[in-house]
User: Which sequence fits this backbone?
């Protein structure tokens, strides 16, 4: 095993473990913190793939904005900080067996896929050219110009929808 | 010749010497690089933390003089060892851990706060040859790392289990994320001009500093970075009269000290970043031939920018929270967005090939937009003015809608 | 490329390690004499009442939402800015349309008075 593989395994394990903890931890705020660690793990996976831009977007948008949005949202909910209910329901044993079966079947299917055996070609461009190519393709009319503009409309819809919902709540419960 | 080389460029000489030494011990390249990185990062981090001691002293002294006080003047000449004494004191102070804290966020927050500040130094080129790393997204990295600082504040506020702390933490985070926006937006302009997000490329592209092509963008960035540092006039998060001491209320001993260090160090690192992006970083006469000179230039420029920040801190009163929000969302963010669009459109539309002409056009554009914005603000302020006669019984309450200047009747 | 991220990773390690060690050393040196009053919540001498982790005003959420939307938008503009030197005027206009669509939402929020602190 090369050192890159070791690093990959560690980050992958950290990512998965913290993703499980997001669901498992009892305090909502702790879940949010685990989620951040999981984002960080994904960011390092991107970095290992030499996709710097996506690594940094993961840091900037997911940790810097979405995680904070989630924490703010946690503070908006009532009586939330800790729950005392049972987190696991009775049929967990059955579900575990089911999940393991499905997972191993999928794993078996995927392992026969030829794509894993082929050796990947290096991209050939690195550093700044990588981002340059990305920038050119999202604006090229025969490239991704339409999805690019559509994403703007999507963001607009998200913004107006979010603001509208938040506004309504404000008028109902002003004492909050 | 070798000695002269060492004098001109000590750091890369040392690193070449070290790597050849390690190679002599029979280590492979795969091990040497991490070791060198480790040493480099260790030296840079420790150095930055030690420099903080000096920064704290200097800032206290300057603020003292601004406010017509002496500032520290007992320990050593000009009180220069004051922060050393403070450090010793804070090292041996008790760590009071309140009984209801949420332990993991509470203990992790001060560490994360310092590390977020230190990390931004990793991508800044200190001279022509001394570069942490030329990450191809270095500029965004600096901003992203600022997000870790926000996280540290939230963790501190939450973990403390104290009402004041959590309210302050939320206020601080709301401020930090708000002001991150104009910062990210204005930084597009240097990237437009360079065609790269790497900090090394950015500095090398500035044969003429970018502040001449984008003075308004630089100003917006500077204001936003003061707000990001949470310093006066944007220090609402530590409004003593309202919130005890801010999000670090429940911290004591060195854990409090870490927030303090992060605060003072960030003031300086943010001025290094400002210098690297807008004032040409290490660029200057003979900086290419003699790299050590570049480092000196960088330090001199950063100290000047840092001094302006401290000066502003000493001079201006604190904004109210609604003013803080208004300045960002109603002035800085829209103006910076429009400025970016105009810069991109006009620069491309004219298609000037001469760099000087480009700079002149962009400079005029910035000044024009700036003048327009100031005019709009003045107009808005005039509209909201309320006339009050002197001697009338009418009393005005200090509320946002009464942002006024009182006119005395002649 | 990987080298650069390796440096960042090492720097992250160092920058977490230095303050952690300092705090650890200080905790060895410092006295430990806790008592109930010293360890109580600090609220200027007044005893604390009720939950700390209270419900916050929706205002904070609106700012965070606006920030997130514009952050995503700006991140899209960075590859555009890097490629700017090699783009045509048409592509620049595309980017301008991209931002203008979102500015519409910004104006909407402003007009609804959601950008004013209450």
Assistant:
């Amino acid at each position: 095993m090369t050192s890159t593989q070791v690093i990959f395994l560690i980050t992958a394990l950290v990512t998965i473990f913290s993703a499980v903890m997001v669901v498992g931890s009892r305090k909502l705020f702790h879940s949010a913190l685990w989620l951040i660690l999981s984002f960080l793990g994904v960011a390092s996976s991107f970095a290992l793939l030499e996709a710097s831009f996506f690594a940094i977007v993961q840091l900037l948008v997911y940790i810097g904005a979405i995680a904070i949005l989630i924490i703010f949202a946690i503070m908006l909910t009532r009586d939330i900080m800790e729950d005392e209910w049972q987190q696991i329901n009775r049929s967990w044993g059955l579900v575990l067996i089911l999940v393991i079966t499905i997972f191993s079947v999928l794993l078996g299917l995927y392992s026969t896929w030829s794509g894993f055996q082929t050796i990947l070609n290096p991209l050939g461009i690195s550093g700044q050219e990588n981002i340059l190519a990305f920038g050119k393709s999202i604006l090229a009319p025969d490239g991704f110009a339409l999805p690019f503009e559509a994403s703007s409309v999507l963001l607009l819809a998200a913004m107006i929808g979010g603001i509208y919902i938040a506004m309504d709540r404000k008028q109902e419960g002003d004492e909050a | 010749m070798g000695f002269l080389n060492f004098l001109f460029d000590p750091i890369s000489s040392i690193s070449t010497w070290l790597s050849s030494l390690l190679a002599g011990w029979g280590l492979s390249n795969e091990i040497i690089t991490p070791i060198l990185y480790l040493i480099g990062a260790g030296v840079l981090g420790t150095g930055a933390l030690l420099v903080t001691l000096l920064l704290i002293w200097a800032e206290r002294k300057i603020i003292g003089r601004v406010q017509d006080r002496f500032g520290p003047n007992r320990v050593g000449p000009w009180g220069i060892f004051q922060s050393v004494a403070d450090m010793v004191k804070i090292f041996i102070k008790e760590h009071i851990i309140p009984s209801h804290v949420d332990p993991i966020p509470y203990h992790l927050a001060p560490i994360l706060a310092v590390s977020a500040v230190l990390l931004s130094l990793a991508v800044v080129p200190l001279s022509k040859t001394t570069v942490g790393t030329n990450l191809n997204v270095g500029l965004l990295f600096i901003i992203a790392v600022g997000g870790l600082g926000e996280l540290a504040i939230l963790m501190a506020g939450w973990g403390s289990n104290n009402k004041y702390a959590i309210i302050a933490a939320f206020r601080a985070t709301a401020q930090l994320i708000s002001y991150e926006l104009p910062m990210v937006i204005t930084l597009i302009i240097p990237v437009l001009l360079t065609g790269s997000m790497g900090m090394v490329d950015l500095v090398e592209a500035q044969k003429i500093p970018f502040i001449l092509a984008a003075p308004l963008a630089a100003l917006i960035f500077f204001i936003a970075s003061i707000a990001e540092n949470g310093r006066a006039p944007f220090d609402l998060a530590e409004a003593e009269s309202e919130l005890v001491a801010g999000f670090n209320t429940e911290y004591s001993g060195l854990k409090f000290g870490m927030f303090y260090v992060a605060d003072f160090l960030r003031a300086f690192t943010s001025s290094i970043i400002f210098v690297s992006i807008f004032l040409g970083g290490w660029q200057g006469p003979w900086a290419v031939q003699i790299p050590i000179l570049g480092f000196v230039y960088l330090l001199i420029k950063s100290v000047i920018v840092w001094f302006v920040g401290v000066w502003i801190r000493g001079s201006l009163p604190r904004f109210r929270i609604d003013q803080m929000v208004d300045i960002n969302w109603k002035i800085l963010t829209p103006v910076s967005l429009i400025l970016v669009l105009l810069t991109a459109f006009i620069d491309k539309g004219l298609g000037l090939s001469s760099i000087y002409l480009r700079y002149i056009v962009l400079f005029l554009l910035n000044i024009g937009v700036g003048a327009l914005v100031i005019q709009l603000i003045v107009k808005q302020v005039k509209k909201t003015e309320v006339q009050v006669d002197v001697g009338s019984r009418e009393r005005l309450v200090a509320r946002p809608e009464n942002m006024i200047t009182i006119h005395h009747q002649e | 490329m990987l080298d650069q991220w390796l440096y960042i990773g090492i720097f992250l390690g160092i920058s977490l390690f230095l303050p952690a060690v300092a705090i650890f050393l200080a905790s060895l040196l410092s006295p430990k004499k806790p008592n109930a009053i010293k360890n109580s919540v600090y609220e200027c001498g007044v005893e604390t009442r009720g939950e700390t982790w209270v419900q916050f005003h929706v205002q904070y959420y609106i700012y965070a939402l606006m920030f997130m939307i514009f952050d995503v938008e700006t991140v899209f503009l960075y590859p555009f800015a890097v490629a700017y030197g090699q783009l045509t005027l048409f592509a620049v206009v595309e980017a301008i349309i991209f931002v203008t669509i979102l500015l519409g939402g910004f104006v909407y929020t402003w007009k609804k008075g959601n950008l004013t602190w209450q």
